[in-house]
Design brief:
This protein is about 85% helix and about 0% strand. It is an all-alpha fold.
Length: about 190
């Protein structure tokens, strides 16, 4: 009975969203985000990455505007599975590129525009990191460059683990926005 009422509730939220009620989507987002994070975490073993994948899955759902669904939970799990595969594929490709780069000298005819784009990307990332508020930047750099855990960062800086997590979320959000902006600019060149 409870499952049926949840199903009906989802259907009514889909109907409201179809009619342009954005708060209906916000309700679906709040309802399914925690479940997606748990599933993603089981695969990637990284809380921030799990949250990012869950967020990307819900955004993909939002932009697809699928209003006629029998089972939203199952549909979101499929999207999440694709996002997770994409993530692992990108990691694998990145590792292969790193291995190849270590094995051979770059050829003289290496694609200059690709190199320029990589330089732009690194410069943008560096600028984005520098533009972060001081404590936020420190937390991010300790995590990424020194590979410290949230607890270690909290102890080092004398702040709570919760504050560390908030700074990391803020940093990752800002960096994603900066990279997205660069991608959009480069696509329109």
């Amino acid at each position: 009975m409870n499952h049926h009422s949840a199903h009906t509730d989802d259907q009514s939220l889909l109907s409201l969203w179809k009619e342009g009620d954005e708060t209906a989507f916000a309700c679906l987002y709040r309802k399914y985000f925690p479940q997606l994070v748990v599933t993603a975490y089981q695969k990637v073993k990284d809380q921030y990455l799990a949250e990012e994948l869950a967020q990307e899955s819900l955004l993909a759902f939002y932009y697809k505007r699928e209003y006629q669904l029998d089972n939203i939970a199952a549909y979101l799990q499929v999207i999440l599975r694709h996002k997770t595969y994409d993530h692992f594929r990108k990691v694998l490709v990145r590792e292969q590129h790193t291995t190849l780069a270590a094995q051979q000298q770059p050829s003289v005819t290496e694609d200059a525009s690709h190199q320029l784009y990589q330089t732009d990307l690194l410069k943008t990332l560096s600028q984005q990191i520098q533009a972060l508020p001081a404590q936020c930047r420190t937390v991010f750099l300790l995590s990424r460059n020194k590979h410290m855990s949230n607890h270690e960062i909290a102890d080092t800086l004398g702040i709570s683990v919760n504050t560390v997590e908030q700074h990391m979320r803020k940093a990752l959000k800002r960096l994603r926005e900066g990279i997205l902006l660069l991608l959009l600019i480069s696509l329109h060149k």
